[in-house]
Amino acid sequence: MKPLNILIVTSSQIIAGGLHATLQRMRTLSTGDICTIEPDKVADYIEKNPARLLLIDPIGINRADLDSLRKSLPQATLVAICSCLLPKEYTKSYDYTLSIYDNPSSLADIIGRMNTDAANNEDTKSLSQREKEVVVGIVKGLSNKEIAAEMNVSVNTVMTHRRNITAKLQIHSAAGLTIYAIVSKLVRLDEISTHLPV
């Protein structure tokens, strides 16, 4: 597993110091750099130093800057580190929320889930972009002919992509591909049409 570069985004030296010490005590965690940055300097910093995990004090960063961070680091996990009870609009854009009063095991859980997601994404990367498009078509309930028309390729090409997908993922059903596509974030749950009897 690659070392985990972590960025702590806060103006509070006490919160930053506590998080830094907690992360260093996690012996099972393969950390790379653990850096602390002021919220107003984070945009410039991440251009040269991308991180996979950002622990952010939500009070110190506005929504526009948070959206910019999300665009700059689409694969990063953003965790709101809360020092007090905040309304949901402060934390709804984060992947996880953690209180400074939580046990260190809560942070370890988040990192464990994040590593699981990264492993799933590595599986997704083994599919070509065209194969991912075919998976999305299958999940949306399109026929081979409809997928071919949407992708502007022949039906035989779609069938070849389907065989390659099955060989790479070892998934042999549309239901299995649907679960895979949701977990791998190829589709959102609301994009899938359900055809249940009424």
TrEMBL record:
SUPFAM superfamilies according to UniProt: C-terminal effector domain of the bipartite response regulators
Claim: Cell wall biogenesis/degradation is one of the keywords in the record: no
GO molecular function: DNA binding
Keyword Oxidoreductase: no
Keyword annotations of the record: DNA-binding, Transcription, Transcription regulation
Membrane-spanning segments: none
InterPro entries with a match to the protein in the record: Sig_transdc_resp-reg_C-effctor, Tscrpt_reg_LuxR_C, WH-like_DNA-bd_sf
Ranges where the HTH luxR-type domain occurs: 120-185
Annotated GO biological process: regulation of DNA-templated transcription
Pfam families listed in its UniProt record: GerE
Name of protein: LuxR family transcriptional regulator
Organism: Muribaculum intestinale
